Amino acid sequence: MSDTPKAPKAPRARAVVDLAALRANVRALRARAPRAQLMAVVKANAYGHGAVPCARAARQAGARWVGTATPHEALALRAAGDTGRLMCWLWTPGDPWREAVEADIDVSVSGLWALEELTAAIAGTGLTARVQLKIDTGLGRNGCQPGDWEALVAASRAAEGAGLVKVTGIWSHFACADEPGHPSIEAQLRVFTDAVAYARAQGLDPEVRHIANSPATLTLPEAHFDLVRTGVAMYGISPSPEVGSPEELGLRPIMTLSASLASVKRVPGGHGVSYGLTYTTPGETTLALVPVGYADGIPRAGSGTGPVLVGGKWRTVAGRVAMDQFVVDLGGDSAAPGDEAVLFGPGDRGEPTAEDWARATGTIAYEVVTRISARVPRVYLGETDPDTGTDTGPDTDVIADDTGA
Ligand SMILES: *Cc1c(COP(=O)(O)O)cnc(C)c1O
User: How many whole angstroms separate alpha carbon 84 and alpha carbon 56?
Assistant: First the structure.
């Protein structure tokens, strides 16, 4: 075994994001919902994958809409040059209604307070806001309660009459779409169709009705309506093992997270490893130091459980995940500083997947990818779409250091 570091071939750690795979996933999802438009959900920095490049790639692959949670996320996309239909839904009093309307963003309204703030913000400007009314069909989170729907519809009609708003959509969100056959799915669909019918009877004429997230897009054609909102599936991750594996769903994970070993050393048996000394080497062995930790978004719950591919074999995190680093025990195998440790990827090089990390740490794959922090540079592959020739990024793969959303 050599102690001499190899020439650095990559930074300390990197999240390689395959935009060609994202485009293929978007096309696969569009084929699943052929009569609906598709909204690419890129909230939370595109679940950690990078909102701007992911939104751009999704639009190249035919996403007519892009969606975010907060207005700030939507405004940041516009500032980065995104054009086309864009919607955001998580509004808090004091948020930038007028800026959003000026930026041609569809805003979501879940209650009278929001409609009042919105109309006050644009009164006298000559602007007309595109508003999508959200009905709570059973999730119990945001959205207008069915009992308050009549009042919200009436106030929206009045605001339309005053030229302040145009109701472009009526929408809702599922609680259990990732559990096919769950009785709440039928119940939510019934409340939703009733709410749409009532609003139409009162004179609203929404362009789009939508309720389907990734699992409903994949399993529930009757929920597609005019638009499906896909997040996790676009990133190649199954909404839940129950819905199927990515491969079975025709999807491919687009993020590969890897790091370069920072140290490789022989230690005797009985050597403790990492804070708390919760792991002790069973005999003389080789320890490799992986220079990523919970500050990079690696779950501390992966202590003693997280899988990592090093030297062609799955290893398990030895001892605790620290803020910046963790250790794996290579047993009798050798490695050198600079060798690659793959935490997760699509799985076809034998590496673990985000789903494997979710299982090992008691969470869902959504969280595994979304929590990868801005300290890990994103490296984009496939920015040019060969199908359209659209080249909206640099010719060469870029390393983006500033990945904050
Ligand atoms: C996050 C989110 C989605 C996307 O959900 P996925 O399960 O990732 O497809 C759709 N709609 C709303 C309102 C969301 O908050």
Answer: 11
